């Protein structure tokens, strides 16, 4: 027969930490073992002992023929009820309030059967007694939350929390200069006053420190009330202010302000302006004024203790004012600089350009015919004019250029001669011959430039008239060519006269060998061979005289051949 086995429990569902009885029977078996307790016997009954978790019991039996058979039963253990836990701070549930830098007492009270563990979390940690207890938070500077979790053996349980609210500690509200908060910069004038104000909370005393911003040297270190104000005057250098406040009862200091309050003494500024004396508003320049003018200077400054002039003026000056220069007679750029000092220095300059004066209008403008000036001969050219003048300039600047115009209408609207601007220091000008017409009345005018390229007005000459008609155009010829010694040479006048009236025309011949003639077409006999300068001078009715000279080569007589018959 095959082996059989049956295992059962007196109760398969028991309370936590209680026991039941396990019973097993078998047939046709040689041995049996019940696990996990390793009970033996082909039948039997055993107490499980108190159980805290579900457990399965298995009976395994072996028959005579070596075959095995098994049977199992499971005992279910019911977990105990979920525990509760109370948590208080200073006896208060949920939350409590304490002063800054003080402590609170935390107390916890678990309740329930079979509490297996209590664990702290939040701002505390670790295992806590399952029977309850208390701890101090230690001194707190900020609010904290504390939690505790108590569980049954099944891991079930509540978490309870309490918050400890911490009152405000010492703090700095502000540090100000003239209403500017730290960190910041407060600007004041040189030797000015800084209105320092401060405020703190939950403190009993403060230390206000002022240091030199450049060197770090302490200027003042004063114990002051937690909130207040004061005026620091006569400040001439940049400063840093810092403040530290604390509660003298607890020794707790307010968090320091991150950066100091900086008091900056404004550096000086200066503004100088100029104008031509009495001529309206001032300008920062550059300005331009006439030569020999005076200039008004006006200046203002701020945060300055003294000012010094340089450039084209000098000496100590007030920190604000005005003055008038002496006449400015150099044609240049004048520079007026003012440097003012205080917490540092500042400089400003105004530039004044002097316009060169205009030269005087040319004086003593006179006009000569080129023939009178020895510059031309009307026998060969047409009329021209030789213009001269005198030059003067109030500043002594020399003449640099001139312009001449000659016009027959006097209006100079379309002058016959216009030299244009001629760069020259000379005070005379020749138009050149042939630019003017005969028998015409003209005027000349002159203007000049000085070394500053300033131009005068026009100066006009008196009227002058060119000759009524052209001078004689002298010419002559002779025959035979060449003349022979001791033979008559005929000279022929070829002169052209322009006055139209032959009455009063005159001829004067010089033959170069001491002979002469006043005839129009003379003859002359040379006694010796050679080259002779023959000059004809012609005079017209206006007594305008011109001459022409030519070389006449005189040869020996040509021999005559005389034929003589042979005898």
UniProtKB/TrEMBL annotation:
Residue ranges, compositional bias (Polar residues): 311-327
Listed InterPro entries: FN3_dom, FN3_sf, Ig-like_fold, PKD/Chitinase_dom, PKD_dom, PKD_dom_sf
Residues of the PKD domain: 500-555
Chain segments carrying region Disordered: 308-327
UniProt signal peptide: none
Domain of life per record: Bacteria
Matches recorded under SMART domains: PKD
Residues covered by the Fibronectin type-III domain: 369-469
Protein name: PKD domain-containing protein
